[in-house]
Write a structure and sequence with these properties.
The two termini are 25 Å apart. The protein has helices at 18-28, 48-57, 75-86; strands at 34-39, 61-66, 90-98, 101-108, 113-120, 128-129. It is globular. Helix 2 links the parallel strand 1 (34-39) and strand 2. It has one domain. It contains three helices and six strands, in the order αβαβαββββ. It has a six-stranded mixed sheet with strand order 1-2-3-4-5-6, with no helix packed on it. It is an alpha/beta fold.
């Protein structure tokens, strides 16, 4: 069964003030308790500062899911990821270790490692491990 979801808030990264406006709307919405950010490096290209300020402005708990792990990031990118991670309550990191296998690792804001969740793509197997 598919449950329809109404989209209430949209972030237009090309619109000045969109980040701060969205943060205010989220903060003012009593129905929102957690903000889940699906992070991909290209999403906020050339808008990294606005994105970090958006995270700072949020008063709700933040979960960041990083979908790309770069093996050799430059110093600026490394600092950016560390700053984003420091603003999150929890962090999920997805990494495709080999063809068809996805691993995710979860850390909380205190740095506690909650381990891995891994699965194979549906076309190769149905194996699933939960946290």
């Amino acid at each position: 069964m598919i449950i329809p979801v109404e989209i209430e808030y949209i972030l237009n990264v090309d619109s000045p003030g969109s980040f701060s406006s969205l943060a205010k709307n989220i903060n003012d919405d009593a129905d929102i308790r957690i903000v889940m950010i699906q992070h991909e490096f290209g999403f906020f290209e050339k808008k990294e500062d606005e994105f970090v300020q958006f995270l700072r402005d949020l008063t709700k708990s933040i979960i960041i899911a990083f979908h790309t792990v770069l093996p050799n990031p430059n110093e600026l990118l490394k600092e950016n990821v560390q700053e984003i991670s420091g603003l999150a309550e929890s962090i999920i990191v997805s990494d495709k270790l080999f063809s068809g296998n996805i691993n995710q690792r979860l850390w909380d804001s205190a740095g506690k490692d909650h381990g891995y969740s891994s699965w194979h793509s549906p076309d190769t197997s149905s194996r699933t491990n939960a946290f």
